[in-house]
Amino acid sequence: MVQITNSLLAKVRKITRRFLREGFRDNLKIYVQGGAGGNGLPKFGGVGGNGGNVVVAAKEDISLETVFKSNKTKQYIAKGGRHASHNFILGIPGEDLRFEVPVGVSIITELGKKLGELNNEGDELVLAKGGTGGHAKNGFLGTKGQAYFVSLDLKLIADIGLVGFPNAGKSTLLRSISQAKPKIASYPFTTVKPNIGIMVYKDHRQISMADLPGLIEGAHANRGMGHEFLKHVERTKLLLMVVDINGFQLGPQYPHRSCLETVMLLIKELEMYNEDMLMKPSMILINKMDSEGALERFQEIRDHLKNLPEFFKQYPEEMRPNKTLNFCDIIPISAKEHPDDVEHVKQKLRKLLDVLAELEKEEEDQSTEIIENVRKSLKEKGPVLV
């Protein structure tokens, strides 16, 4: 079995650290705090306004990275209710704080309690209730709103998502690397719904892999099974691109695309749908290396794969992506004929996911420390009787 070198691990750590800093997230820890209730006015029986709630709503076509960029403090604090006064016997309620998250998010408190799931666009959930306004039964003292940390967890359909044009060999790879039994044939669109395979290792570690319906050019505009595919791939932790060394042609009426053109167009489709997906950790497999002349073709394109932006420049602007995937590794394989190739890929994927998990833990620990300091500085003072 091929060993993973220290230099590869260093490269993986460097790339995945950048992804965590700049790109894809499947988890975001935030601080939520309902507004404090306003104080009542005992002299006239005035009632303080209730504090505002923190409310979250599900929205399609956004990511947790979008949520993070819109509020990098990761604090969501609703407005407090107004105190009752001579002019306003009923204090004005605090305004609710609303924000949006991707469809498919689960919300879990720091104590492990699940507050709910947002599975459909428009679903709403109150994360932190505002405090009650002061009135006769509570001594006219407004109460504090709920306050705690919560994790926004994007539910993944699999750890790894296979990305490629039809007939690139994704189903063959999934069958070889796991116990899944996808339909396999020498024509496009054998995969019409996600096939989930489980890779099992000798120490019983399990990693899930999804073979998703094949992309075609124009998928971002919902051609073929475009949006269905892209929504699935959005909910995986790692992209594993599979391309045919011989290129791809959807049918006689379509142009033949070379291996490098295939890579370019796949990246373009991902970017056109949601450029945040280009921030995901990724690896590329150049498949069907058992075919005649494959080794020579791979040697011709290997350097281009390491410098894709330069290769893209020779194509019209409408074909080339503005950004690219930064592959952690480029591996030539024959998923059908060479079991050793498949085992090599299996070990590489495990190591990459392990490094990614380690770096996510480091980032979460740092984030928790920062938010705890902020939380202390934001401690509300007790309400004062007026």
Give the fraction of residues assigned to helices: 25-40%
Query: Helix count, per DSSP?
Result: 8
What does the oligomeric state look like here?
Answer: single chain
The string of secondary-structure elements, in order, is HEEHEEEEEEEHEEHEHEHHEH
Question: Describe the biggest sheet?
Answer: 6 strands, mixed
Distance between the termini: 76 Å
Work out the radius of gyration: 26 Å
Mean pLDDT: 82
What does this structure look like?
One of its GO terms (biological process) is ribosome biogenesis. It is found in: Nucleus, Nucleolus. This protein is an alpha/beta fold. Helices cover 29% and strands 22% of the residues. The strands form three sheets. The chain has a six-stranded mixed beta sheet, sandwiched between helices. A five-stranded mixed beta sheet has the order 3-1-8-5-6, covered by helices on one side. It has a three-stranded mixed beta sheet with strand order 4-2-7. 42% of the residues are buried. The N terminus and C terminus are likely disordered.
